[in-house]
Amino acid sequence: MLSIHCLFKKKKTDDGIRFVELDETDSTNRYCMDHLCDGLLIDGQPMRMVVVSAEYQRDGRGQGINKWESERGANLLFSMYCRPSWLAARRQFVISECAALAIRDTLATFADGFSVKWPNDIYHHDRKICGILIENRLSAGRLKDCVVGVGLNVNQLHFVSDAPNPVSLRQITGREMDCKAIEHDIVRRFDERLEMGERGLYGAIAEDYTSCLYRLGGFHAYRDASGIFEAAIVEVEDDGQLILRDRDGRMRAYAFKEVEFIIS
């Protein structure tokens, strides 16, 4: 039995991309997995991507056990479901790069100071504006399908959770934003980035991603299992590992959750 309970609003198609809008659901990522896992056929029509958005998520998820705070109707909560079967499993970090770049590049049209905090949070200076939760499924060494869940603070002015450094686009710009216009621009840019990947332009995607990294250049404070240290970002490898160089010149490689950025 499906765990999804939602009020369905409407759906529309835009150049091979179907937009499904819900009033409320527990998780747009879970909705995608439960309803779209048999492929990208909606009403008998083949789709390149399906985008599911909600005004409110009862169980909005971050990485691990984290929750995503969002005031009803104030922000963007959506998931992009696609089937990039052209992508080898060993290169699945490309999805993370494409999603992060799409969001960062859209936000950069409104203000300066946006960057990608490895692996795929979006920051405005030292404050978090967007989280991304990616769920990939593999088959025969390639991606079968993937869901890219996005929680983007757009118009929320007050945050009540214990998240240490949230910020919204409205707080940054001082004006109310059109959430749907922003969503459509992100989806368009993500689709374009996926097309670059399908053409094998992995190096260009990685170069753009690296150029947008939070704390790129200079030494900064980090914490790993051994304690606090200072290091500079060297690169992000194809599999998503972060390579740091500490002040002694030693290279340190980290998978996700193995190192923490210390932000004052």
TrEMBL record:
Origin superkingdom: Bacteria
SUPFAM superfamilies: Class II aaRS and biotin synthetases
Keyword Ligase: yes
Molecular functions (GO terms): biotin--[biotin carboxyl-carrier protein] ligase activity
Keyword Ligase tagged: yes
A single GO cellular-component term on record: cytoplasm
Keywords: Ligase
BPL/LPL catalytic domain boundaries: 23-198
Full protein name: BirA family biotin operon repressor/biotin-[acetyl-CoA-carboxylase] ligase
Organism: Hallella colorans
